[in-house]
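Query structure, 435 tokens:
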């Protein structure tokens, strides 16, 4: 019993030390140094407030730090530490994390860039905005919303601050993000190819081949693209050959090179030479690609974010916005036949007399008295006799001046004669009463 007592006490002491360390780290005693401190030593009140806020920020007291920074910005609106305080306010939300915290941090970083666009810290703020969406990216087969937003924000950093020290890091982040987006498009294209929906597969794979040439599976995408065009018929023979030729020329170390050369031979198309720049780039990528660890292989399915180990480490990422294209099987409107190619113009009507002189189309009659759509009266065709003059006179006699028929006129005359006879009978009755 007494032999194992020292070991048991040592084990308990180690366990107690580990527990205390975990409690201290969780209670905020672990200090994380701030990236943008002010080295100037001063006793000015605004500097004192800034130092106090930074200490709270480093110790994880984010709410207290934000209250101190707000007091500094509201009280000393002309302080030389105002820009630093506004950036630290955004950093407090960024460090706090969470969906709400990251959304607040993005809004504050955007405001900082708007107010201080010429400062070097504006490039840092833009990089933090890119990192906000980069950290929230889903895997390639899930919602690509944050991946698309991260691509836009990293591209904005390279466009607005191309000479910043944060530009190389943003360029690598952009390559990682585009690897995730291209992987999602490739999986959808491969699915359509497996289901033998070749026009849909060709549409997805063609977009990858044209827009993301740095994608790690671009050679396989071009191979499936050529196969899809081949099975779509001889009309797409040239496109299939271009896909096979791109594998040989731009991906010379790919395992699909030999098969692509055979396909080009069967299509009776020339085999291009390998591009030496593409050869050196692909060799560098294969030598510097990160290898998966045992833990990442075992627990990768439980990871929320994507795997970007295979992303390119060199090359210029795509700077254009990725837009879906129209499948090649859909006919182009200009090729189907001649249509209206002019311009449609609209002008204001100045003369409104046409509304008073021209007939109203809603009344059901045109200007010549005929119904809409009825053929206009004209000279008789050849071989057809003209109407007799007697018939015309008979019709005119049967019709009144106002277009009324003779029967209608005779009926009106009878009713008028009846009214006169009633008026003549009334005086006779009055004379009989007087007598």
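Result returned for the query:
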């Amino acid at each position: 019993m007494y032999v194992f007592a020292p070991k048991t006490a040592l084990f308990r002491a180690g366990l107690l030390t580990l527990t205390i360390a975990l409690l201290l780290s969780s209670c905020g005693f672990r200090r994380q140094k701030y990236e943008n401190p002010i080295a100037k030593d001063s006793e000015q009140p605004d500097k004192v407030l800034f130092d106090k806020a930074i200490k709270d920020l480093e110790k994880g007291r984010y709410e207290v730090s934000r209250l101190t920074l707000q007091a500094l910005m509201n009280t000393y609106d002309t302080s030389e530490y105002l820009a630093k305080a506004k950036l630290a306010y955004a950093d407090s939300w960024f460090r706090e994390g969470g969906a709400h915290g990251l959304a607040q941090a993005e809004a504050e970083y955007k405001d900082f860039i708007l107010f201080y666009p010429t400062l070097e810290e504006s490039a840092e703020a833009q990089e933090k905005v890119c990192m906000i969406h980069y950290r929230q990216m889903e895997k390639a087969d899930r919602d690509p919303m944050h991946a698309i937003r991260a691509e836009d924000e990293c591209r904005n950093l390279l466009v607005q601050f191309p000479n910043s020290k944060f530009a190389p890091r943003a360029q690598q982040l952009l390559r990682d993000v585009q690897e995730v987006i291209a992987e999602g498009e490739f999986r959808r294209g491969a699915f359509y190819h497996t289901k033998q929906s070749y026009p849909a597969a060709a549409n997805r794979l063609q977009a990858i081949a044209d827009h993301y040439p740095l994608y790690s599976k671009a050679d396989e995408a071009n191979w499936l693209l050529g196969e899809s065009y081949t099975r779509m018929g001889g009309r797409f023979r040239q496109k299939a050959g271009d896909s096979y030729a791109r594998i040989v020329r731009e991906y010379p170390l790919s395992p699909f090179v030999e098969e692509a050369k055979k396909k080009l031979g069967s299509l009776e198309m020339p085999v291009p030479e390998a591009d030496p720049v593409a050869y050196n780039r692909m060799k560098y990528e294969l030598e510097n690609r990160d290898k998966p660890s045992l833990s990442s292989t075992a627990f990768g399915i439980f990871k929320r974010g994507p795997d970007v180990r295979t992303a390119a480490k060199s090359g210029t990422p795509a700077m254009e916005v990725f837009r879906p294209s129209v499948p090649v099987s859909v006919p182009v409107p200009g090729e189907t036949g001649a249509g209206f190619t002019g311009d449609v113009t609209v002008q204001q009507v100045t003369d409104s007399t046409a509304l008073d002189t021209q007939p109203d189309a809603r009344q059901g009659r045109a200007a010549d008295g005929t119904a809409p759509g009825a053929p206009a009266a004209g000279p008789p065709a050849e071989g057809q006799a003209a109407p007799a003059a007697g018939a015309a006179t008979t019709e005119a006699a049967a019709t009144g001046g106002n277009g009324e028929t003779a029967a209608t006129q005779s009926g009106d005359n009878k009713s008028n004669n009846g009214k006169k006879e009633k008026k003549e009978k009334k005086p006779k009755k009055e004379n009989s009463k007087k007598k």
